[in-house]
């Protein structure tokens, strides 16, 4: 059977977002002293913003397409940003290439915000009556 498979940009965004959930320094910081574990609302509030640029193979090419990402994140104060960036890149590249067959050209990571420990406590305190 012949034909090409094309994958929507939104699928790549979803895969990258799921991959980022595995980068605990972006969503939660496992530390002693009350910083462990974010609530769902907190995670959604500081969720990474992901944009994708995709190149599908042309009709006559036998190769797969390629994709590039820009990921805007917030990190918890105290993490080593270069290490977090490398970890995020590795996870996104691995998951996207494994699940789609597309090659990842690059993953640009933009750290837009550092979340301070006080903000973690404020967020938890605001939500504690509902829990």
What does the model show?
The protein has 131 residues and is α+β, with helices and mostly antiparallel strands. The protein has one domain (9-126): Cation efflux protein, cytoplasmic domain (Alpha-Beta Plaits), CATH 3.30.70. 40% of the residues lie in helices and 24% in strands. The chain has 5 helices and 3 strands; from the N terminus they run αααββαβα. The protein has helices at residues 9-20, 24-27, 40-45, 81-100, 117-127; strands at residues 49-55, 66-76, 103-115. It has a 3-stranded mixed beta sheet with strand order 1-2-3. The radius of gyration is 18 Å and the shape is elongated.
CATH architecture: 2-Layer Sandwich
Strand content: 15-25%
- CATH H-level superfamily title: Cation efflux protein, cytoplasmic domain
Query: Which value, in Å, is the CA radius of gyration?
Result: 18 Å
Kindly report the average pLDDT value. 76
Number of domains: 1
- What is the N-to-C succession of helices and strands? HHHEEHEH
CATH class: Alpha Beta
- Reported by name, the CATH topology is Alpha-Beta Plaits
State the end-to-end distance: 54 Å
Uncertain regions spanning at least 5 consecutive residues: 28-44
The total of beta strands comes to: 3
- Count helical runs: 5
Shape: elongated
> Structural class given helices, strands, pairing?
alpha+beta
**Approximate helicity band:** 40-55%
Report the sheet with the most strands, covering strand number, pairing sense and barrel closure: 3 strands, mixed
Q: Order of strands across the widest beta sheet?
A: 1-2-3
